[in-house]
Fold each of these.
Amino acid sequence: MAFQPRYPILTPQRFTIISSKRYCPTQTLGTTALQARTHLAAFHTTPVRAMKGARVTSWGAPPEYMTVPDLPAPLPNQLQLKVLAVGVPRAVRGRAECKHPSAFGAPLPFDPSADGVGVDEATGDRYFINTLAAPLFAERANVDRSQLVKLNAAADPVTVAALANPTASSWMALRCRATGGCQGRTVVIVGATSASGRAGIAVARALGAARTVGVARDPDTLAKVEGLDDRVLLPAHPDEPLVLPPSIGPVHIVLDWVGGPAAVQLLQSAQTEPGENLQYIQVGGLAGHDTLVIPSRLINIKPICIMASGVGSLSGEDLKREMPGLVNTITTMRRPFEVFAAPMADVQSVWNSEEAQSKRLVLIP
C-alpha cells in the first residue's frame, strides 16, 4: 500500500494547510513555511484522545459500548459539546432496529441517538441538541450552532433529555399541524397512559386547551394519569365499540398514538361544534396497525380533517422555529412519567432491562 500522508505536504514552491490560522494555499515559502512546519510538528506530537460511545453493530441488538473515532476540530459554525444526557424514546429504539425511516439504508456500526443535552466546557453554557443534529451516543459532539437551544441554569439535563422526544410529538402536532391551535378547545389524547400521551396532556394544558380527555385501555393506570378532565376506556374486546360519552361535549382535536379501528369509532361517536372541524392527528401506532380505514359516509356527514404529524409532514424550519418554545416549556414541566438514568457504559445490559421498559431510559456518557 502506498504511503498516504496524514497532513498536507509542503512543496518546493507552495503549500496547503488547513488550521485555525487559515493559511492560504498560495502563500510562498520563507518564514511562513517554517511556521507551517512547526504547526505540523505540533499536530504529530499531540496525543489523540480516545472517545467512548455506543454503536449498533447488529440491527435489533442493543448498542455496544466501544471506542469510537475522535472528533475533528469544530467548524466555525459549530460548537463541540460534552454530552450530558441522551434520551432513548421509541424512535431511538426504532432506529436501533432499522425500523424507523431515518435509519433506512444506514451502514453499521450505527449511532441511533436522536437528541440530547450537552455543555460547552469553555463557557459552562448548556444546550438542548435538536433532533438528528449530531451523533450523541458519545462523550462529545460537534453541533451546528443553529441546531442548539440554550438552557437556563435551572434546567435538569436528564429531565430535558427524557421529555424532549415525547413532548415534541404533541407540541409539533398542536403547533404546526392543528389549524388554529388548541387554545380554548377540547383535546382528546388516545394512548394517554403512554409516555408520549402523558406528555401530550401536559403540552395541551400548557398551550391553553380548555379540556383534556384521556383514552386508554388499562383503567388503573389511566386513573393515575394527571391533568385529565375526563377518562374513557378503550374496549377490552375488538368487537366492542369505543363510545365517547355525551358529557364530554364537542371535540376539536384528537391526538392518536394508538391507531386502528378505535380511531374510527372515536370519530364516529365524537360530537362536533358547528362551524368547526374535528381535527384528527395521527402521531403514533402503538396498536401496530398499518392502515386506517375510514368509511366514506363518515367524512360526508361530519366535518373531519385527517392528518398526521411526524417525519415528512414537518419541515426543518418548523423544528427550528418551535424548539425554543418547546424546550422552555419542558424546563418548567413536572416529569409526567418515571425516568431511568443509567451510565452509557452499561448500555448493553440496561437497554432491554425491565426498568428501561417501564420507565424512560436516559443514557449519561
Amino acid sequence: MIVSVPDSKTDESTSEIALVDVSSGTRRALTRGRKGISSPRWSPDGENLAFLAKDAGTRKNQIFIMPMQGGDARCVTGNGEGVERFSWSPDGKYIAFVAQDPPLNAEAIKAHNKVFRVTDGHFLLKQEVAPWHLWIVPAAGGDARRLTQGKFSLGTESGSIATPAWSRDGERIAFTQFPGAYWAPSFRSVIGEVDVGLGITRVLVADQGARYFTYAPAGDAYAFQRSRNGDQNNGTAVYVHANGRSYDATAAQARHFSSYAWMPDGKTLIMAGPSGTHSVLWRQPLSGKATLLDLGNVEANNGLGTTTSASSSDISVSNTGTIAFIGSTANHPGELYVLDSTSSRPRRLTHVNDFVDGLDLGRTTAVEWTTSDHLAGDGVLTYPVGFQAGNKYPLVLLIHGGPTLSSNQGFQRLAQLLAASGYLVFQPNYRGSNNLGDTYQHAIYRDTGDGPGRDVMAGLAAVEKLGIVDPDRIGVSGWSYG
C-alpha cells in the first residue's frame, strides 16, 4: 500500500510503499525518500515488487523492481516520456507498460510556440497531443520493445489510461484503444489486442465505449466496462464474455459500478460502486443475482479501482480469495481493510489516521426527499461540532461535481472542517448523480441545469424541515459541475 504523509512546513507530501502483514497488521516501510511513488505490483511468484517512481536521470516515472529477499530496487525502464501504467507477464519474465510518444512538434515547443489550435473540443494548446502506446521490457533488464503503432492511443490527455492486460498464456496483451489522444472522442474507445511475438494488433471488443479490460484468472472468460447499452447517460456496467457470448453481468441492478475485480475461480466478480449514501461492494457471479457484502459502517470509497482502472489500484483479491481495500467511516479517514471471505465483515489492518480519533467531529447522516418530478433524491448532512437540539445553525451547501459522481457517508475533510466552525454541511446528490440507479442518473439528460437546481433546493427544503437551519445564514459552494 502507499502511505502519504503531509508536511505542513513545505506544503508537500512524501509517500512510501508500506508492507502490511495481513494476519498481524504489522507495517514496515519498503521505500524511503523516493519521488513519485505509485502503483506497487507483486510479481506472479511474489518474489519481487515493481513500482513507479521518478528516475534521477529522466526525472520521469520509471519502473523499479525490488527483490523481497533483500537488495536495492533497480530501474528497468528509461523511457523519455515516463511510464504511465504497467503489468507483469504471467511468467514474471516481462513487464508491459504504457508510455506517451515524444512531443510531435518538440522544436516548436522549444521556440515557445505562439500558435494554438482549436480542435477536438480543446483550445490554448501549445502542441498537438502525442498518443500513448504499448511496450514490453525484460524484468531482468534490457532494451524495451514497442508493440503498438498508429494514430490510435492507449490513453488521452484527460488521464484516461488503462493498465494492459496479459492473457494467461502470455501470448497476447489487451488494452483500451482510443481513436486518438484527445479526450473528446474517447467515448468511441474499443478493446484492442496485440500478439506479443508478432506485434500484430486487432480489435477484440468492438462495442463503443469499452474499456478497463481483464482476463479471468481461470477459464476462458474476460470482462470489460462500458456505459450500459452504450448510452453515456447510463451508469457504467461490467460486461462479461463467456461461453461464446458477451452480456451485461450487472443488468439486473441497472446502476453504476465504478470498478470490479475477479475472484480466483474466474466465475465471480467483486463489484464496487455507490448505493444511496454509501459506497459498497457486491459479489456478482457470472450468472445469477448479486449479493451485497456486509461492510458494517465502512465505506469502500477511497479511490476504488481495479488494476485496469485509470487510477491506482485500491482493491485487491488474493489467490485465496481475501479482499483488501481502502475504506473510511464517517468519523475516520482511509485505512486498509480486508475481508477474509465474501461472507465476513471488514477487518481493519492499519492505524495510519488514528490521530483523528482524538478530535471532536460532527455527526453525519443521510437525508432523503422526493424531487418535483417524483424522483427519489438523497444527500449527506453533517452536524456542527457541539450540536444542541433546539438551536438553529448556519448551513453550507457543498455540491459535488461530475455530474456523474455522488456524496456518501465516508470521511469528508472539508465537511468536518466546516462542522468544526459551527456549520451544518449539506451535500446533495442531484439528478445525474451515480448513486441511485440509471433512471436517476439519466434524468439529467436534456435537463442539465434547471433539474439539478430543483433537486438541490428540494434537498435543502428537506433539511430545513428538521428545524435546525438558520434561514438567514445559508451559503453555497461546490466544485466543477457543482
